[in-house]
Write a structure and sequence with these properties.
Helix content: over 70%
Strand content: under 5%
Shape: elongated
Number of helices: 5
């Protein structure tokens, strides 16, 4: 089975877009009102200044403890399942070798039955491997949703006083963001607060 990898960058881009959407939507009304007022006065509307900050998604994937724990948990599960599947595959291969050794001494009917049995076991193993892969994929999606929710909720809380109009998910080399002023980087503060909340949640009984 393929290695598990949480799609954190995509998750974070969606998460930080929450603020973009909320504040862009809320600013439409105020901008429209300002524009209408200015039009009545016969003067052009002046665009309001915007506070734009960014979060380095690479830093989040490396330092956000929730993400790292989720990644580790999925990798451990995958390792155990790979070990189990490897054992079953070796056992089936041993049966195939034993069949080849005995084939010369078997009747045609016995040989056909043994061959069909091996084919059914191989199909069962393939189906089992597919089910495990689907289960891991579902767990991965669940973890992605949980990580997204934790980041989105934190960003909404952090921006309760509307200090930011836009929050951008930034990755070095990302062609959609060619330059970012380092003074606008809030990655460190966000990661520290996310980790504090995550550690607190670990010791808080679930309802």
């Amino acid at each position: 089975m393929k290695n598990i990898s949480l799609l954190l960058n995509g998750v974070l881009i969606i998460a930080v877009a929450v603020l973009y959407y909320l504040h862009f939507s809320s600013s439409i009304g105020s901008t429209t009102a300002t524009s209408s007022s200015s039009t009545l006065k016969g003067s052009a509307a002046q665009p309001a200044s915007k506070r734009i900050v960014f979060i380095n998604t690479d830093s989040l994937s490396q330092k956000y403890e929730y993400y790292k724990d989720a990644q580790k948990e999925l990798e451990e599960k995958q390792g155990k399942l790979d070990t189990e599947l490897g054992g079953r595959l070796r056992a089936l291969q041993n049966e195939a070798v034993a069949f080849q050794k005995k084939a010369a001494t078997m009747t045609q009917e016995q040989g056909q039955q043994a061959e069909q049995l091996l084919m059914r076991k191989q199909q069962d193993l393939e189906q089992y491997r597919t089910r495990l892969g689907q289960q891991l994929a579902e767990e991965q999606q669940t973890k992605n949703r949980e990580i997204f929710e934790s980041i989105a909720k934190y960003l909404e809380k952090r921006n309760a006083n509307s200090q930011y109009d836009y929050v951008i998910g930034y990755t070095r080399g990302n062609p959609t963001v060619l330059f970012a002023n380092g003074s606008l980087d809030i990655s460190k503060e966000v990661i520290e607060e996310l980790n504090k909340e995550y550690k607190t949640s670990l010791f808080t009984p679930k309802k």
